[in-house]
Amino acid sequence: MKKLTDPMDSLDLTNAKTLPMTEDVTEQNSTLLKRFFSIFAAGPVKPGESYGAPGQGKSLAISLFTTFTLLFVWHIATYFQLVKPLFLPSPISVIQRFWEVATEGFGNATLLEHTGWSMMRVFSAFFLALITAVPIGILMGVNRIVRGLFDPIIEFYRPLPPLAYLPLVIIWLGIGEVSKVTLIYLAMFAPIALSARAGVKSVAIEQIHAAYSMGASRWQVIRHIILINALPEILTGLRIGVGFGWTTLVAAEMVAAQAGLGFMVLNAAEFLVTDVVIMGIIVIGIIAYLFDMFMRYLEKKLVPWKGR
Amino acid sequence: MSRLQIHDVSVRFPGMNGGEAVTALSGINFQIEPGEFVVALGASGCGKTTLLNLMAGFIQPSEGYLTLGDSGISGLPRVACGLELKDQITGPGQDRGVVFQKHALLPWLNVLDNAAFGLKLQGVGKEERNERAADFLKLVGLEDFHNHPVYQLSGGMQQRVGIARGLTNDPQMLLLDEPLGALDALTREVLQELLLEVWQETQKMMFFITHSVEEALFMASRLIIMSPRPGRITHDFSLNFNKIFLETRDARQVKSMPEFIEMREKVLGIIHGDEAENGGAH
Q: What residues form the membrane-spanning segments (chain A) (predicted)?
């Protein structure tokens, strides 16, 4: 199958012609190569977009290629012992470790328990942020007094790294679950509140005018126009917020945790069990990625009109 | 029968960065009689949209007042005492429907729900509001599109929804702020005819802003021409090309009548005169 739009194809054909080989082999090689490269083709160009914005087309195959190349390089580097296992254990030993921690546990808890604790912390913080940061962000958008009250607080602490105020949170709230959830909650609060506020501000004045001229009250304008209009940005804020939550998890589990993915990683690092460290990182990454996929799916279902 | 009256209205906007205040409208005296189709035409910055926003109640006059109702203008002493006149326009209300240039529909609602949105705000039950919205969607030719998301419609169809939405509240007048300005020439002519049919059917007062001289002459039973700096009404013509169209249903013939062409040249002359005065500045 030849696509006119694929530069790889034409390149490949000219190469094949200049190769000093027999007719048959050339043909075979070129189709094999073509097949291989066609995996990475951009796909058919949409009509009228031949001179469209740069960067269009499919990229999934290339992403998979990157992933497998990285795994392969990792495997080669460890297989030929180019790096000591202390610094970089092999993928296979990480997978073995995964199974071992999943069944027997590490640091007095199984992988499921570690994951459960971490998810409990991140998602209770997320839930708290959802029911507080979203309303406060919306109120900041529609009410100047609330905006005046919260703006300096949020703008001041937002750029601070959570590690900087972790000691204070521990002094105030102790070393139990409350301080861990609070730390994650604080990291999530600012981006969620600010995106809710930005969502409120993004509403078109014509839509508000239209509602008023159809007899809407102030409250109806907020409920039927502003809130729904802010939904896409609120969802984006929630995605960013959960991302910050996972970022902060390890910091939160630094002090006096008995279980948790962050705790597991830190504990393993202390005993130089590098394969558990890498395994923990990968588990956190995969959970965060899956949740992000879920949020994107939710976005597609809830706000199909986004950007229209 | 109610009419819209504008009495000695001026609008001044505070200057930017402490600059001089801008007089957007000055000394407007004007009324729209029941059943009139009034078109406002003028160079950019002449205050057409400000005038529409006043009628809609989105802004308040710096001086003077507007009323919409069956009472004549009286009761100046009440205004002097800071009291409201009977029927005075003090804010937006459902007695004045507005159609915007950028349709301003709600993309999360389908066509029917958009058209019925005003009734929903009034607390009208679902069945009744859908029935009433369906009547007006039929009037604008969208009876087969009730469940379509509005963001999938063409510009012309979106504007049809906008018109239906403006009508479902049964307002006394419809304010149209360049509603056809963003449409292609063919769709635009179709919607001009549609609007005239809607006008004939509903007998509402219409206030319609446009930049197109031909559109203005074709649509208006009364044409006002405005001039900038300060914004004011300089000409006021009574026309009947719209009635001729509604009788003959032949838009091309109306637009090529010698009287139409003569009027077009005259109005163009007035507007170009204004623009030359402004150094052609836009």
A: 60-80, 122-142, 163-188, 271-291
A90: amino acid identity, one letter: S
Nearest by CB to A228, from B94, B108, B175: name it.
Answer: B108
> Of A33-47, A289-303, B201-215, which range is least confident?
A33-47
Question: Is A207 an interface residue toward B (CB < 8 Å)?
Answer: yes
In which element (H, E) is residue A274 found? helix A274-302
* pTM > 0.95: yes or no: no
Q: In what order do the strands lie in the sheet with B3-13?
A: B22-32, B3-13, B63-69
Q: What is the ipTM of this complex?
A: 0.89
Q: What pLDDT is attached to residue B82?
A: 61
Residue A50 lies in a domain: no
* Residue A213 is assigned to a structural domain of this protein: yes
pLDDT tens sequence across A105-139 = 888 889 999 999 999 999 999 999 999 999 999 99
For residue B279, what pLDDT is reported? 52
Q: What is the mean pLDDT of chain A?
A: 86
CA distance A71 to A80: 14
pLDDT less than 50: residues of chain B: 75, 280-282
Burial profile B73-107: b = 16 or more Cβ within 10 angstroms, e = fewer: bebeeeeeeeeebebbbeebbbbbbbbbbbbbbbb
Instruction: Specify if A38 maps to a domain.
Output: no
Does the distance separating the beta carbons of B151 and A212 come in below 8 Å? Answer: no
Range of the domain at A223: 102-302
Q: Any idea what the CATH number is for the domain that residue A192 is in?
A: 1.10.3720.10
A199 domain-assigned: yes
The domain ranges of chain B are 34-58+91-95+171-277
CATH top-level class for B34-58+91-95+171-277? alpha beta
Which residue(s) pair with A124 in the sheet? none
User: What pLDDT sits at residue A7?
Assistant: 46
Size of interface A-B (CB pairs under 8 A): 63
Instruction: Give the tens place of pLDDT for each residue, A218-234.
Output: 999 999 999 999 999 99
Selection from B184, B181, B185, B208 nearest residue B196 by Cα? B208
B21 in contact with A, Cβ within 8 Å: no
- A262: its two tokens: 């962050």
Domain count, chain A: 1
**Contacts of residue A119, Cβ cutoff 8 Å, sequence gap at least 6:** A287
pLDDT given at position B64: 85
In order of A94, A125, B255, B269, the CA distances from B261 in angstroms are 85, 71, 7, 12
Q: What pLDDT score was predicted for residue B72?
A: 57
DSSP B192: H
Burial letters A216-235, b for 16+ CB under 10 A, else e: beeebbbebbbbbbbbbbbb
Residue type, A263: F
A8-18 burial, b if ≥16 CB within 10 A, otherwise e? bbeebeeebee
